[in-house]
Recover the amino acids of this structure.
């Protein structure tokens, strides 16, 4: 199955570190932030200074879903990761995985705005 989302692409170290920090209102339906992790050597996220709950989806280089961590709590310093190498990470509003019936081995189409 292919899931379509749109939003910003973060592909610099600074943009990746910033992510969705300090955003206080939920994202719009099907809006997210896609992180291109090819320029960085880390694949762990946290919710520091992030005020909205998020689902974090891990993708390979073809935007195939290889794992996810759902309903991450705002402001948490707990590490968010999976035990697989990923190329992209997509952050969406919490409960998006369930709401859009997103599953491992599905694909993401992401439109940069």
């Amino acid at each position: 199955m292919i899931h379509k989302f749109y939003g910003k692409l973060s592909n610099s170290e600074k943009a990746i570190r910033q992510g969705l920090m300090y955003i206080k209102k939920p994202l719009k339906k099907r809006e997210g932030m896609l992180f291109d992790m090819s320029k960085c050597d880390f694949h762990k996220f946290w919710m520091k200074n992030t005020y909205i709950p998020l689902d974090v989806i891990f993708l390979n280089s073809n935007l195939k879903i290889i794992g996810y961590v759902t309903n991450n709590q705002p402001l948490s310093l707990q590490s968010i990761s999976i035990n697989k190498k990923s190329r992209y990470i997509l952050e969406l509003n919490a409960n998006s995985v369930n709401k859009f019936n997103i599953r491992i081995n599905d694909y993401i189409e992401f439109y940069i705005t």
